[in-house]
Design a protein that fits this description.
The chain is an alpha/beta fold. Helices cover 29% and strands 27% of the residues. It contains ten helices and 14 strands. The radius of gyration is 19 Å and the shape is globular. It binds S-adenosylmethionine (SAM). The site of S-adenosylmethionine has 23 residues, from helix 4.
């Protein structure tokens, strides 16, 4: 069986394509339908190749027809100490099940999650002695697991709103508990639209991580509320998501009322390089609007942060000013064009946070 970098067979890919097509037809919500229909093409570009996966045939069931999961060994060519055993679900979802309570996290590990996991491994020191929570981590919470097994986090809380995802994450945590060393790892069903599912964590989380969760029109403001409730006053939320038909922009607009918001496009040289190569293949293969995750950082208003910029990073605001090496560039992220445009240049303005 031929596998791509994140462990899917070509057969699985075409099945997934059909599933998404079916779902697209079944959806009533116009905006979501547009998003999900676009998702079909995600299968054309499914991975940044940041992590390598190898099927664990000893753990996986012999009969793939009767069982609905497979185990994979995840490792990272650039972070040799990272190795984790992850269970993928292979559930056949009806369109109703997919949209019922969202099963999009049970279909695959999305590129944003892969990029977030890579980012967490690269910047593991930011989690030292911190309470970390992943929101909407899907069936693996891969990035949260990367934090748990590679950093000195005080505590890691892995969450999703889908019961099937949470059950799968519990199994994965049990399998990998030897690799977490001193970091307690909890799995919880946190639903952004149910305050009772997270209120006990109020103000207790130092770093929230989240990947590809901004396109749910009906839950977008709930997600902003959840992040605001969980985050400690000097905490940070690190979110990776593609522009996806302006849904990232809508999220940032809502978040700006309560957070300082920074958006970056060039946050990692490896990801940037793969992005440039993929883009050169043309929109049929790689559609920047749905395939390239931007990095969004949220901090609560009135709590300035020390920035960790490198010179090649570009900081984008959905609307207004950004700073690069002391120069302020006024850029506007154009989701339809899939890139930022410099609208104005000036000098002397300090600070890189926007809002
Ligand atoms: C596109 S998936 C992303 C999963 C994973 N982060 C990834 O990138 O592979 C979106 C996730 O958001 C979760 N989700 C959707 N609405 C939610 C809600 N109201 N509360 C909690 N989780 C929700 C879904 O269950 C799903 O796992």
């Amino acid at each position: 069986m031929s596998l791509n970098k994140i462990g899917r067979s070509k057969d699985c890919e075409s099945t997934a394509k059909q599933r998404w097509k079916l779902l697209g037809k079944a959806l009533i919500n116009k905006g979501l339908r547009k998003n999900i229909t676009s998702e079909v093409s995600v299968r054309r570009f499914s991975s940044y190749g940041l992590l390598t996966t190898k099927k664990n045939i000893l753990l996986s069931p012999l009969s793939e027809d009767t069982e609905n999961y497979s185990w994979f060994q995840y490792s990272s060519p650039s972070h040799k100490d990272f190795c984790i055993t992850i269970r993928h679900l292979k559930q056949q979802f009806s369109p109703e099940e997919l949209i019922g309570f969202n099963n999009t996290g049970n279909v695959c590990v999305w590129p944003s999650e892969e990029v977030l996991a890579h980012h967490c491994l690269t910047h593991r020191s930011i989690f030292r002695e911190k309470t970390v929570c992943e929101l909407g981590g899907g069936m693996t919470c891969l990035a949260g697991l990367a934090v748990a097994c590679s950093s000195d986090a005080t505590r890691v809380i892995l969450t999703d709103g889908n019961d099937l995802s949470c059950k799968n994450i519990e199994v994965i945590v049990e399998k990998n508990k030897g690799t977490f060393i001193n970091t307690p790892v909890d799995v919880r069903n946190v639903r952004w639209n149910e305050e009772s599912s997270y209120i006990d964590l109020k103000d207790s989380v130092d770093v929230i991580i989240c990947a590809d969760c901004l396109f749910f029109d009906q839950y977008r403001s709930d997600l902003v509320d959840t992040i605001h409730c969980l985050l400690s006053s000097d905490g940070t939320a690190i979110i990776f998501a593609p522009c996806r038909n302006r849904t990232l922009e809508k999220f940032c607009q809502q978040a700006k009322s309560r957070f300082d918001v920074t958006i970056e496009d060039n946050y990692d040289p490896t990801v940037w390089s793969v992005f440039q190569q993929a883009k050169a293949k043309g929109k049929e293969v790689f559609d920047e609007d749905i395939h390239y995750p931007l990095k969004i950082t949220l901090t609560k208003r009135g709590h300035p942060k020390i920035s960790h910029h490198t010179s090649n990073r570009v900081h984008l605001d959905v609307n207004h000013s950004t700073e690069i090496n002391g120069h302020t560039e006024v850029k506007q992220w154009d989701c339809t064009k899939g890139h930022s445009e410099i609208k104005h240049l000036n000098g002397g303005v300090q600070g890189n946070r926007v809002g």
